[in-house]
Design goal:
Protein name: DUF1023 domain-containing protein
Structural class: alpha/beta
Shape: globular
Helix content: 40-55%
Keywords: Coiled coil
CATH class of one domain: Alpha Beta
Number of helices: 15
Organism: Streptosporangium roseum (strain ATCC 12428 / DSM 43021 / JCM 3005 / KCTC 9067 / NCIMB 10171 / NRRL 2505 / NI 9100)
Pfam families: Abhydrolase_8 (PF06259)
Largest sheet: 8 strands, mixed
Radius of gyration: 32 Å
InterPro entries: AB_hydrolase_fold, DUF1023
């Protein structure tokens, strides 16, 4: 918006001078003189020499722009007034003078805001290029379209309005505004340290959930919330248990006072004793209700404890929502500083109470990627920002694993989280963003990628995928799409089940409509067009579903290949073994190429297995 406004003012200024020059030239000719109207042109100091993808903002170039605007604001009004006087002296009526004055006043108005914003940016960044978020909203935020009123909400939130903070979180969950995280990043960085501290102290649960804020800020806010909630629950449990013990002692005392302690339905219980019974039941229920949340806290603490050991960096708590199904995100490594980032999205059966295992998967992925490239900064994130389907909820329309409803509700949250990673990252370019979806988490990932086509991640990786909500890899809008599937993982073959029509025709038989499983076509099928990486058969019988959870086994082929992929070390991938002599192998051309250095990887289709009647313990 600012560039368009600047271009409009430049054009208006140029036309004003051109028009005035032509009028003066005509008058000179009318008076018998000879004159030619000069040609006017202007330049903008921040234009790139050639069209190219926007990667950030050069601070020195922007400093020159502000200086140019400041000079224009100082000189143009005087030039406009002088021009008006000259035109009047020649009895020429033209709007050129006021237009030039107006351009100068506009430039002067912009300088006041831009100078303040640029000074803030310069205090936080070294000279060089700053991120798109800071360029787009840190400097030019006043010119950005804002259909949902995020600017109004951030202004109120900066004044401590918790309702506005909550409204921003609600807006974030919809995933509609892909610029929201960048707005929030710029807004937060322009707040003073004292204001930031007050917001974290007053509303840590809200601040910690805002995508786009620096990872260390979110960690600080969420840890404060975690500790505060643990203290409150611990105190409440202690109070309830102490009160319950007192009530039980009183019940026993009153029961002993009953004459003969008769039993049976004819027993008349004193009112006081009945009240104690009722109170005791309520306290027991309250204790039971607090139990799950306390177990969630323990799981998060255990996940965080995996950081800072075995050479890993300290863990950062990027999201925390306790109670109910619960949500969280834990990162091993600072995603704002990382060269290579991976976000792992778990699948069916995942709960916050059992999240320690998922955090461990992210930790071992960090271990593997770091082992292969110790000179690179790695950030490995375990993200449970959606309500994963549960096996016991198969008959529930929105929590079942047999449709995409849960994924459709979770995809906007994942898309927004990815927006935040991009917005908060300090480097303007050069980082590799990966999203790794496992089981039903691959369905969430596929749908989220389609909501941010071209801006979601540099690559997506699917393991044990029953379908990603797409017919072709190219539909995801991601440069590189990788699929790994253990030959003895039956979940990976769900997409091959003929349960629904896709609305497209079969490549091999153009007269037949393609069919797929309930979550989309099998992404490991050659016609899907994804790159395949080798996963070794674990040797477990398919009906046990054990292979579905072994992609992260230490020293496994799959974990090593995940590490190579996250680092972009495509040439080092462990290849598929050569097929036995005389065996047939299905091959197809690659639809997408992850990089010019990528090896030629087979798109073989793992041998199908029929699904047994039993269900896996979880995704």
């Amino acid at each position: 918006m600012f560039s368009r406004a600047l271009a409009h003012r430049r054009t208006t200024l140029q036309l004003a001078f051109q028009s005035a020059a032509e009028l003066i030239t005509q008058r000179i000719r009318q008076l018998g003189g000879q004159a030619h109207a000069p040609s006017f042109s202007t330049s903008i100091s921040v234009l790139a020499p050639a069209p190219a993808p926007f990667s950030g903002m050069d601070i020195l170039a922007m400093s020159r722009l502000v200086a140019d605007l400041q000079r224009a604001g100082r000189e143009l009004p005087e030039a406009g007034r002088r021009l008006s006087a000259e035109l009047s002296a020649l009895c020429l009526a033209a709007p050129s003078g006021p237009q030039i004055v107006d351009a100068g006043l506009w430039a002067e108005e912009q300088v006041r805001d831009l100078r303040q914003r640029l000074n803030t940016i310069q205090r936080q960044h070294d000279l060089g290029t700053v991120s798109q978020a800071m360029a787009g909203f840190g400097l030019f935020g006043g010119h950005a379209p804002d259909p949902d009123g995020a600017g109004r909400l951030t202004a109120a939130a900066g004044n401590g309005d918790a309702t506005a903070l909550k409204a921003l979180l609600d807006m974030q969950r919809t995933g509609r505004d892909r610029t929201l995280a960048a707005r929030l990043n710029a807004w937060w960085r322009h707040l003073g340290a004292a204001v930031q501290d007050r917001l974290i102290a007053a509303s840590p649960n809200l601040v910690g959930g805002l995508n786009g804020l620096p990872a260390t800020v979110r960690d600080r806010a969420n840890r404060r919330c975690l500790a505060g909630r643990k203290t409150a629950i611990t105190a409440e449990l202690e109070r309830l248990r102490r009160t319950s013990e007192d009530a039980e002692a009183m019940v026993e005392k009153l029961e002993q006072a009953l004459p003969g302690r008769p039993t049976g339905p004819w027993l008349v219980i004193p009112v006081e004793l009945e009240e104690l019974y009722r109170s005791s039941r309520k306290m027991d229920e309250a204790i039971r209700e607090l139990g799950p949340e306390m177990r969630q806290i323990t799981a998060v603490e255990n996940g965080l404890a995996l950081g800072g050991r075995n050479g890993r960096p300290p863990a950062l708590l990027l999201q925390l929502e306790l109670g109910g199904p619960g949500r969280t995100a834990i990162s091993f490594g600072d995603p704002d500083e990382a060269d290579n980032l991976v976000t792992y999205v778990p699948g069916t059966g995942t709960t916050l109470e059992g999240f320690t295992g998922d955090a461990n998967r992210a930790a071992v992925v960090w271990d593997q990627a770091h082992y292969f490239q110790p000179d690179k900064k790695i950030a490995s994130i375990a993200w449970l920002g959606y309500t994963a389907p549960q096996w016991e909820a198969t008959l529930s329309l929105n929590r079942t694993v047999v449709n995409t409803n849960a994924a459709e509700m979770g995809a906007p949250a994942l898309a927004s989280f990815a927006d935040g990673l991009h917005a908060a990252h300090k480097a303007a370019s050069g980082a590799r963003f990966t999203v790794l979806g496992h089981s039903y988490g691959s369905t969430v990932t596929g749908l989220a990628a389609q909501q941010r086509s071209g801006a979601f991640a540099d690559q997506v990786i699917f393991v044990g995928s029953p379908g990603v909500g797409a017919v072709k890899a190219k539909d995801l809008g991601v440069g590189s799409v990788w699929v790994g599937e253990a030959p003895n993982d039956p979940v990976g073959d769900v997409g091959s089940l003929p349960l629904q029509f896709t609305g497209t025709f079969d490549d091999a038989a153009p007269y037949l409509l393609k069919v797929s499983g309930p979550l989309g076509v099998d992404p490991s099928a050659p016609e899907f067009g994804a790159q395949q990486f080798y996963v070794k058969d674990s040797g477990d019988p398919a009906h046990t579903f054990s292979a579905h959870s072994k992609y992260w086994d230490v020293n496994s082929t799959s974990l090593k290949n995940l590490g190579y992929l996250i680092n972009g070390q495509y040439g080092a991938l462990i290849p598929f073994p050569d097929p036995p002599v005389g065996s047939a192998e299905i091959l197809s051309p690659l639809a997408t190429s992850p990089s010019p250095q990528s090896p030629s990887i087979s798109t073989r289709n793992p041998s199908p297995h029929s699904l047994p009647s039993s269900t896996p313990a979880g995704g």
